[in-house]
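Final paragraph of the annual report: two paired records, presented back to back.
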Amino acid sequence: MRTALLQSSGRPGSVAANLKVLDEAAGRAAAAGAGLLAAPEMFLTGYAIGDDIARLAEPADGDWADAVAELAARHGLAVAYGYPERAGESVFNSAQLISADGTRLANYRKTHLFGCFEHDHFTPGGTPVVQAELNGLRVGLMICYDVEFPENVRAHALAGTDLLVVPTAQMHPFQFVAESVVLVRAFENQMYVAYVNRVGREGEFEFVGLSTLAGPDGVARTRAGRAEELLLADVDPVLLAASREVNPYLKDRRPGLYGSLI
């Protein structure tokens, strides 16, 4: 499945403008044969927008989901995107996957909040593994800091995730996560990892870009720089199956030794 990664911060604070950016990117991705377009963490609203997070937050089945569903169906490709989700009095840092026919397939709430900013504005999610079937692949969702916890990604591996989509707001000085950690996570868990980042300065944060699609061999299939960019690379189930056959990490596990981890 050809996968497109939209490295962009859009226009923080303007959902309408960001939907236009997403629509334009979906058109380019579809024209290039992509079956999935992934956008960064909090893409629809912006990340560093303070109290506007709570003001703008919408339910998972709100107007924004309808707008993304419409553009996904119009362009004929699935879309994964980050947004602030309103559920009663709680606001979650969420990512949603919508199919090429506009069906809502999966909604994930970030489980590991990063720093004072996120703890001040969000409630942590409580479900670590959220998946959906897409074009013959089992696609999992995770958000930014979540991928830095090896137990989190291993849980996806044990649940059969083929492609882990990680909308991200990864900032300076932690670029080694994009450069190295993501590749290791893909290798040690035998999956593809699509890590799609914001870019440029936003409030107090400087997002580093460096989005990538990492393969199960630990090799980046594509890598962005530090400017806005639409990346394209393929998730190959044949290569994935072959890699899983020869890599023994998951087969050689000894869960009986790991009780102290929990």
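The closing record of the year follows.
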Amino acid sequence: MIVVAGEALIDLVPQGPGALAGLKPALGGGPYNTAVALGRLGSPTAFCSRTSYDAFGEALLDGLRQTGVEVSAVQRGVEPTTLAVATIDGNGSAAYSFYVEGTADRLFTVPDRLPAGARAVSFGTCSLVLEPGASAYEELMRTAAAQGLFTALDPNIRAGLIPDADAYRARFERWLPSVSLLKLSEEDAQWLGGTPREWLAAGPSAVVVTHGGDGLTAFTRDGAEYSVPGEKVDVVDTIGAGDTVNAALLHGLSVRNALSPEALAGLGADGWGRLLGFAARAAAITCSRAGAEPPYASELGEM
């Protein structure tokens, strides 16, 4: 079982140009998209979050159930669902404005236990920024790591939600000893101001950096570096592409029984090449479709 911990929200996606274009609601949130993608790939998955009892919250849970994701660890509240208004530029890249005050997901509390059979826990995006939930997710990350579970982190920086950039960067560095696999975009890496080698020295066994359409690179503790090119595709938008990479990496490691630091160290050039190539193909399919619509296993072929 792979547990994905973090927010579920509604993306409001513009259906045309301009600030007053019509907005279409879509199920979203980085962790939510990761959970859906894992479910579509066939990995046993559970979602650990807090959602509203409102209609959006019910739709979010239905979306998880439809992909086979376990939702028994989802907390509920009467507060409204978080909204993220997307803006799509000429290259299909998405930027977001968030409506988060008093919403259900940021009131997450530390659960008594994780779902049975948990082998890995994935964290990231807004859930590690918005208090008081951010501190609860941070505690869960440290607890999972202390219990020997594989932990994955995608900071997925949303700078508009971070009031004190230096404080967040310091907090990010404190997370690293509890992280097995760090995945982040080139833009995230630039904003954080560190390097893969510096982050590896602080704790993770591997760091994967995405380069948009130019592919992915993995850095490992033994000094190795493995890269694959991106898959060429007509980009509709990039919503959910990074989340799909998260899911593809975790699914691929699970299939290889490699959800441990020792197994990561033994992947080698062939193993990393296949894993990164699989993630690149999965992300390309997501980019070819509007909104966060990650692929099913049947669309990807062999890993």
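The first helix runs from residue 30 to 41. This concludes the annual technical report; the extension proposal builds directly on these records.
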